[in-house]
Structures are given as structure tokens and as C-alpha cells.
């Protein structure tokens, strides 16, 4: 007797409904009798009927691992990047600050990025209350979502094993473990780009159906209409990626667009129309906010931080756009203009930047293997028809990988090593898809050699990374990785010549080789999750030199005069992390040093008096204790404990200033105080329960408040105190522009007092 499974019953009912619908129109909704909710729940738990028994448990294990890597001891970084943490706190207090991404809740100026990631963190803070946990929880969930979407996109065309491998590689990428536990916008950026790639995969897949699909409401939709909906969804996601980190979100467009243009099973005209519709949706997804900012009266919204003319569009094309690629427009040199040897941020621009000491520990572990297997996969599918799905997958992920890697490698403006997190899904997918294609042809010696070479190069490069940037950390690990990868690969290649047990021997060799290739990146990932990270240039890997925030705190000098990312030169930090806290000579910090990664404890940042040389060195943005050296914070790695906000160094050797916090909290004006620079303002916002005005924005050079406007604010009683110091360690915000004019005017008309070592001017008591 033949039994009918629930799935077969569902399909028969669906087919019968289609037969009735197509000739004579839609049937009543009551005809859709299948228990869809129960069927979806069963499918979620057990998978599809034709899935192997191990597939769904393995997926749950992968997602559990991602939860552990991204969520375990999540608060060990405190507030991580306090610049964004302060904006998230402000977003939890004021809806206009939430909408525009204001640094302070009274809306003086926005952060220098679009606000999409702050929308999520701000809502989380409103729901759970503002804390380190509510700040970083969305980031960790975005990481788990990215792993799941990468698995789903790869699995659809290359099978469960390839999907699981891709998800595992994303999870075991150090820079992913870094940024999915951090409050920078990169976590949301990667999630949105991966979701867009998944939508394109579904659109190409739908294009191959010979019959219309039936929606949950019983409506019939053609394959073309369904594919169009997926493409429009992908465009909207990319639009929101633009609202997360502007032009970086658009780097995946060539790969996604080319894959659909090549592989979708529609006429050329239909494919072009769908791509045009997707492009329109990108413009809509990104443009609505740009238009909103332009239409909103400038006097009734915050100044757009980082722009030169208070325009979101100018910010996208200037400082966060062409300025990043070509250099200039407020961007520090990534192309050879700064630092020893012309390295600057990210090292010298060039083809091999992803393999230099600053990027190597973040992303390069499996990058050579991904390129080898990408090329091998494309060669393996060279004779496939135009609509071949596997080749389309390689075009999609390979286009993402190559375009993003080349852009990051050659951009001459500011480039930080953690930007490489955008490569993680593409690296993982190229290895999984290309590796599956090569493995499927393992009966040929040539293809076994190719796969063995990819494994060997991973192990050997891991040896190199563990030898140079991370020398001194687990010195035995590099030998284990290299030997296991090489011996395993050689065994896999040679096994067929060993007789009847060849298959078992080959599989054993392959497993050993893969484990060796993954050993270095996995160890670095677990070391990353085990230590806290702070500041504007966090780096992945173990905390060797007591610092987890490359470049020290927010915007501190790149290794002093040497330009090394994160502190004193010659330190033993991994991947160029260096010793944070001891970086830079006085007055050389390009963006000021801000307080690092702490929870509010009633202590404010404390700074030296304005004009103090030592204060400039250590408090360019965080206002460290007067005359104190930034070396005070270099004595240990970040722990899970919450320290007082405002640190003399990157790691929280802070000087509490409860008196200043009490002074600020006692005010009832619109802004309790004004200070030069976002970094200084962020520390005071997190320390107190008030809004603090930033003059000059991130670099201290934004003209968000003119002298006349500031004088009017003081006259109206909108600002109670002016706190001296801050602003780029005496950079443009401190020596020129409106910041210098306001500072000079305040000094001339108000008396200076000292509160816990900080120079404060009471703007309610003029002396002249």
C-alpha cells in the first residue's frame, strides 16, 4: 500500500488548486486547506523531506557555534567604540536624535556616518535600557544572521555540506568575530549585503521555474514577477546598506548584477528591466533619507557631521565617498601619505595590502585559498550553459570578493583593517562553492592537486601570519597548522595510488588538511572573542601587548610618529595591533584620544588644562587627567569589568572625576556643556545624564557651530559650561576655525576653574 506523506498531499492540493485557478481565475481562499503553519514548523525543525538526516542538526550546531562566538561574554568590551555608543545613548533619549544619528540628545551634530545602524542600537537601548549589553546584542544577532544567510545562499545551489562549510568559515573569521561584537556600523553593513546576495540567489533560482508559483494567500504569480520581487528586495537592502556605511555598501553591486544578467532564465530584455528596477529600489532605499535631510530645515535638525556644507549627499560623495578612495577631504593617508614608510592607516596601498601586517590577522588566513578555488571553480564550469547556477554563484560571490578586495587594497584615503569584514561572506562562499566543484572531480589527479594546493597554501600562510604579526603567541600552533595542512593535502592527493583503502585514507587526509588550514584562523577567532576591544581601530587576535583597541582610544595617533596602528612601535601585538595607550607624541594624534569601552560609573573623562602639552598627548578627545601620560592605560587587556568612563589610556587606567559628572548632571540647560571634538563629547555624554555639545565634529574642523551661534546659545542660557581641551590634540579644531574662535572668546570673557583637574568655564558668569 502506498502512503501519502504530508508534503505529497500538500503538493497534490496545490497542483489541483493551480489547475482550477489558471483557466478560470483565483479560487476562494477557503480552498487552501493544507495545514501550512504546522508544515512550516515541521520543515523548520526537520528540514525538507529529501534533506539528509544530518543536515538540520548540523545547521543548528553551526548557528549555536555562531551564537557562542559572537555572544559569549559579550560585554567584555564595555561600550567598545564610545563614539557610536554615545550616539546610541542619545537615540534612546530623543526621537530626533534617533532619526538623524545625533551624537547628543539635543541634536547639535550627527556622527559622521548615516544612522541606519544607530536605529537598531537605539531601539535596543529603548527596549532593554542603555547598557553595554543592549548596545552590542544587535551586533551579535547580526553576526548569527549573516552566518545563516551565507549558509542558505550557498546551500541552495551547492548542497548542505558546502553551505555548512561557508557558514563555518564566516564564523571562524577573526575580523567577523571582532566586528559582530563591536558597535561600529560594519556588522549591519555585512548583514544587509549578505541578505541582498541571498535575494539575488532566489531571483535567479525562480527564473528557472516552468510554472507560476502560488502565494500563501492562494494567488498565482508568474516566475518573472516573483524574480522581480526578489530583485527589488535586494535593491532595497543595498539601499539600506548605503544608509549604514554609504559607498562601501555599493561594492557588491557588480557581482550581484552580473550574476543575474548572466544566469537568469529570462530574455535579455526582461533581465535588463529587472536590473533597472533593482537599481531604482537601491536609489529609493538610500535616497529617501538623503531627501529627508535635504528637505528638513537646517535650523531644526542637527548638523551633518563630516560634511562641509551640512549635506548628507556631500558627505556620501566627499568624506565618506571619493575622499576615501582618492584621499584628501578629511581622510588620513592610506595610500602612502602618512606614517613611517608612507604606510598610514591600513599600510601602503597596493595589490597585496590585504596581506600586510595590519590586515593579515583580520582576513588573509583563507584569502589565497578562496582565490585559487574561485578560479578553479570557474574553469570547472567553463562549458556549462549560460544559466548554470553554480557558475552564477561563483560570479556573484567572486565579483563581491574581487571588487571589494581591490577597492580596499588601492583606496588612498582612510582605511582601517576592520573594513575587511566585508570580505568574510565572499571568502567563505568562494571556498565552499569552488571547493565542492574541485572535490567532485577528485578522480582526476589535476583536480586533486588543485584542492591540495588550496589546503597547503592556507596552512603555510597561517604559519606566516602566526610567525610575523603574532610572534610569541602560541608558537607551537604555526607548526601544527602547517604540518597538518601539508601532510593532509599530500595524503589526499596521493591516496588513490594506495589500493583498496584509498577512499578512507583520502578522506582522512582531507579532513586533517582542512583542520590544519582552519587552525590559525579559528585560534585567532577564539582569542578575539576572549578579549575586549575598544576605540576607533580595534584589531582581531590575542591581547599580547595589553591593548585591544588598535590606535589606542578613539582616533589616537597611529603609533605616534611611526604610523603603526595601535601604539608604540616594535610591540609584539598581533596583526599590527601594537600597544595601545602609549601611542603618539604630544600634539600628533590625528583625531584625538577618546575614552574607551566602559560603562557609566559616575566618572567623567578628565583632561588637562587647555594648552597643556601632556594633556594634548593623552586627551586629544577623551580629556585624560591633567598632565598624565597615556601610558597609564597600557598595563593590561580589557576585562569584563566595567570601568569608569574616560581613560588616560586605551584600556581604562582612568582618573575618575565624579565632581565634574555631578556638576554636569546638576544643570538643566539644553546642553550641560560644550567641548571641542566628538571624542571628548562622547565621553562626557556616556559619563553623565546630560547632552554635551560637540564643536567641530570628529576631526574638530566641522563648522557646525559658528562663534555668533555659540554666543547666542550662551545668551539664551542653552549652554552652562565650556570644558577646555579636546579636539585632535591641538589639531584643526583646536587651532583654527570656529573651535579656536569660540575657545578664545570663552577665555577672554569667562573665568577658568578647575574641577578634578579639568579646566571648566562657567558660561553663566561672565567676567567682561
Compact description:
The chain is mainly alpha-helical and 768 residues long. It contains 27 helices and 7 strands.
Largest sheet: 5 strands, mixed
Head-to-tail CA distance between termini: 102 Å
Q: Note the beta-strand portion.
A: under 5%
Question: Helix share of residues?
Answer: 40-55%
Give the overall average pLDDT.
79
Total count of helical runs of at least 4 residues: 27
Total strands = 7
Which stretches of 5+ consecutive residues score pLDDT under 50?
1-34, 334-344, 545-655, 727-735
Explain this structure to me?
With 768 residues, the chain is mainly alpha-helical. The protein has 27 helices and seven strands. It has helices at 6-24, 36-46, 55-71, 82-91, 95-100, 116-128, 132-158, 160-171, 174-179, 186-206, 223-245, 253-263, 268-295, 312-326, 360-363, 367-380, 389-410, 424-440, 445-467, 475-494, 502-530, 613-618, 658-665, 678-687, 707-716, 732-735, 737-749; strands at 213-214, 220-221, 671-676, 692-695, 719-726, 750-755, 758-766. The strands form two sheets. Strands 4-3-5-7-6 form a five-stranded mixed β-sheet, with helices on both faces. Strands 1-2 form a two-stranded antiparallel ribbon. It is globular and about 95 Å long. The chain starts with 5 loop residues before the first helix and ends with a strand. The relative contact order is 0.09. Residues 1-34, 334-344, 545-655 and 727-735 have low confidence and may be disordered.
Amino acid at each position: 500500500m502506498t502512503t501519502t506523506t504530508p508534503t505529497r498531499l500538500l503538493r497534490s492540493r496545490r497542483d489541483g488548486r493551480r489547475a482550477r485557478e489558471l483557466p478560470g481565475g483565483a479560487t476562494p481562499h477557503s480552498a487552501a486547506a493544507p495545514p501550512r503553519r504546522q508544515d512550516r514548523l515541521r520543515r523548520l525543525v526537520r528540514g525538507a523531506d529529501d534533506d539528509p538526516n544530518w543536515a538540520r542538526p548540523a545547521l543548528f550546531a553551526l548557528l549555536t557555534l555562531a551564537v557562542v562566538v559572537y555572544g559569549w561574554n559579550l560585554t567584555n568590551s564595555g561600550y567598545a567604540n564610545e563614539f557610536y555608543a554615545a550616539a546610541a545613548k542619545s537615540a534612546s533619549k530623543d526621537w530626533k536624535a534617533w532619526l538623524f544619528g545625533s551624537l547628543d540628545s539635543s541634536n547639535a551634530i550627527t556622527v559622521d556616518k548615516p544612522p541606519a545602524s544607530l536605529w537598531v542600537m537605539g531601539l535596543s537601548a529603548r527596549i532593554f535600557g542603555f547598557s553595554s549589553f543592549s548596545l552590542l546584542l544587535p551586533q551579535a544577532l547580526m553576526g548569527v544572521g549573516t552566518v545563516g544567510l551565507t549558509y542558505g545562499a550557498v546551500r541552495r545551489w551547492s548542497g548542505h555540506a558546502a553551505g555548512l562549510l561557508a557558514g563555518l568559515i564566516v564564523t571562524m573569521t577573526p575580523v567577523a568575530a571582532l566586528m559582530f561584537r563591536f558597535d561600529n556600523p560594519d556588522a549591519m553593513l555585512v548583514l544587509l549585503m549578505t541578505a541582498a546576495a541571498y535575494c539575488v540567489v532566489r531571483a535567479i533560482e525562480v527564473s528557472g521555474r516552468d510554472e507560476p508559483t502560488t502565494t500563501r494567500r492562494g494567488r498565482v504569480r508568474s516566475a518573472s514577477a516573483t524574480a522581480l520581487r526578489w530583485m527589488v528586495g535586494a535593491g532595497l537592502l543595498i539601499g539600506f546598506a548605503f544608509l549604514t556605511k554609504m559607498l562601501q555598501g555599493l561594492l557588491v553591486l557588480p557581482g550581484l548584477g552580473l550574476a543575474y544578467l548572466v544566469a537568469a532564465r529570462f530574455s535579455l530584455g526582461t533581465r535588463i528591466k529587472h536590473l533597472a528596477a533593482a537599481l531604482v529600489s537601491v536609489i529609493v532605499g538610500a535616497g529617501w533619507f538623503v531627501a529627508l535631510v535635504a528637505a528638513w530645515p537646517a535650523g531644526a535638525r542637527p548638523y551633518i557631521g563630516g560634511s562641509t556644507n551640512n549635506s548628507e549627499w556631500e558627505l556620501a560623495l566627499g568624506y565618506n565617498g571619493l575622499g576615501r578612495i582618492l584621499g584628501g577631504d578629511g581622510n588620513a593617508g592610506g595610500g602612502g601619505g602618512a606614517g613611517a614608510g608612507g604606510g598610514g592607516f591600513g599600510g601602503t596601498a597596493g595589490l597585496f595590502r590585504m596581506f600586510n601586517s595590519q590586515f593579515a590577522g583580520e582576513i588573509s588566513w583563507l584569502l589565497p585559498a578562496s582565490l585559487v578555488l574561485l578560479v578553479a571553480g570557474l574553469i570547472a564550469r567553463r562549458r556549462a550553459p549560460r544559466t548554470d547556477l553554480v557558475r552564477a554563484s561563483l560570479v556573484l560571490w567572486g565579483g563581491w570578493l574581487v571588487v571589494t578586495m581591490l577597492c580596499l587594497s588601492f583606496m588612498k584615503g582612510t582605511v582601517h583593517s576592520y573594513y575587511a569584514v566585508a570580505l568574510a561572506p565572499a571568502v567563505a562562499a568562494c571556498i565552499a562553492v569552488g571547493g565542492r566543484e574541485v572535490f567532485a572531480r577528485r578522480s582526476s589527479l589535476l583536480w586533486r592537486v588543485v584542492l591540495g594546493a588550496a589546503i597547503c597554501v592556507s596552512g603555510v600562510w597561517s604559519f606566516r601570519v602566526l610567525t610575523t604579526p603574532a610572534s610569541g603567541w602560541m608558537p607551537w600552533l604555526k607548526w601544527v597548522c602547517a604540518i597538518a595542512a601539508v601532510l593532509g593535502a599530500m595524503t589526499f592527493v596521493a591516496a588513490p595510488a594506495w589500493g583498496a583503502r584509498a577512499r578512507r585514507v583520502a578522506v582522512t587526509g582531507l579532513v586533517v588538511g582542512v583542520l590544519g588550514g582552519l587552525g590559525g584562523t579559528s585560534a585567532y577567532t577564539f582569542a578575539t572573542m576572549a578579549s575586549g576591544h575598544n576605540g576607533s581601530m580595534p584589531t582581531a587576535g590575542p591581547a599580547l601587548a595589553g591593548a585591544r583597541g588598535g590606535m589606542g582610544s578613539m582616533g589616537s595617533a597611529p603609533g605616534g610618529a611611526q604610523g603603526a596602528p595601535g601604539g608604540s612601535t616594535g610591540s609584539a601585538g598581533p596583526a599590527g595591533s601594537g600597544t595601545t595607550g602609549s601611542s603618539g607624541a604630544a600634539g600628533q594624534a590625528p583625531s584625538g584620544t577618546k575614552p574607551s569601552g566602559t560603562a557609566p560609573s559616575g566618572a567623567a573623562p578628565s583632561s588637562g588644562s587647555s594648552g597643556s602639552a601632556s594633556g594634548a598627548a593623552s586627551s586629544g578627545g577623551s580629556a585624560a587627567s591633567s598632565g598624565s601620560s597615556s601610558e597609564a592605560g597600557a598595563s593590561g587587556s580589557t576585562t569584563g569589568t566595567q570601568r569608569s568612563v574616560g581613560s588616560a589610556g586605551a584600556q581604562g587606567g582612568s582618573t575618575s572625576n565624579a565632581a565634574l559628572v555631578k556638576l554636569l548632571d546638576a544643570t538643566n540647560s539644553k546642553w550641560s556643556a560644550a567641548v571641542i571634538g566628538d571624542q571628548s563629547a562622547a565621553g562626557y555624554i556616556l559619563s553623565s545624564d546630560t547632552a554635551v555639545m560637540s564643536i567641530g565634529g570628529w576631526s574638530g574642523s566641522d563648522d557646525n557651530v559658528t562663534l555668533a551661534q555659540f554666543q547666542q546659545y550662551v545668551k539664551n542660557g542653552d549652554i552652562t559650561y565650556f570644558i577646555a581641551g579636546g579636539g585632535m590634540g591641538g589639531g584643526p579644531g583646536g587651532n583654527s576655525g570656529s573651535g579656536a574662535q569660540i575657545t578664545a572668546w570663552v577665555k577672554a570673557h569667562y573665568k577658568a576653574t578647575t574641577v578634578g583637574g579639568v579646566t571648566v568655564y562657567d558660561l553663566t558668569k561672565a567676567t567682561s
